[in-house]
Specification:
By secondary structure, this protein is mostly helical. Helices cover 80% and strands 0% of the residues. The protein contains five helices and no strands. The longest helix has 39 residues. The chain is elongated and about 60 Å long.
Length: 166
């Protein structure tokens, strides 16, 4: 029989946005690793330009549901914690993490054009797909710095302030 001491649902709720935002950051870091590695192959730029539009299209559409789920859950769990007022100092950090999670989607207009350019690039040696993906990565880095990392940091602080020493 599960004990409240072992698996307390309230503690799980308090930690949940930190877990989901950690998953979001992992996905973002992996995107940088995989796509950054691809576009950094300067000697093979012609081959990259030929295959990159289809690779990026598959990469993007397969990853999009994960982004909606992880950021959606971070936002929902953050709001649930902020509205539940876990502590006088913790609720504001949950609210902040939620705002930064939502801010991730404020970059959609800038990202959408980069996605379109990368997917619609000609599959030729001089097609420009690598440059289009690099443009996506540039916006992706800014979004990580201004939305994703601050969201994670807010949730980390919220958990530390709400749960206190273990």
């Amino acid at each position: 029989m599960a004990s409240g001491r072992f698996l307390d649902p309230l503690t799980l709720l308090r930690v949940a946005p930190l877990i989901t935002s950690t998953v979001s950051l992992t996905i973002a870091s992996d995107s940088h690793l995989f796509l950054g590695s691809l576009v950094s192959l300067k000697p093979q730029r012609a081959a990259v330009n030929q295959m990159a539009p289809r690779y990026f299209e598959t990469f993007f559409w397969r990853g999009l549901p994960e982004i909606f789920v992880t950021f959606g859950l971070s936002l929902a769990f953050g709001v649930a914690n902020a509205c539940g007022k876990p502590s006088a100092v913790g609720w504001a950090w949950y609210a902040g993490g939620s705002v930064f999670s939502l801010a991730h989607f404020a970059f959609v207009p800038a990202i959408a054009w980069k996605v379109k350019d990368a997917i619609e690039a000609k599959e030729t040696p001089d097609g420009g797909a690598a440059d289009a993906i690099q443009g996506w990565l540039n916006v992706h880095h800014v979004r990580m710095a201004l939305a994703d990392i601050p969201s994670w940091a807010c949730f980390l602080i919220a958990v530390a302030k709400t749960l206190g020493p273990v």
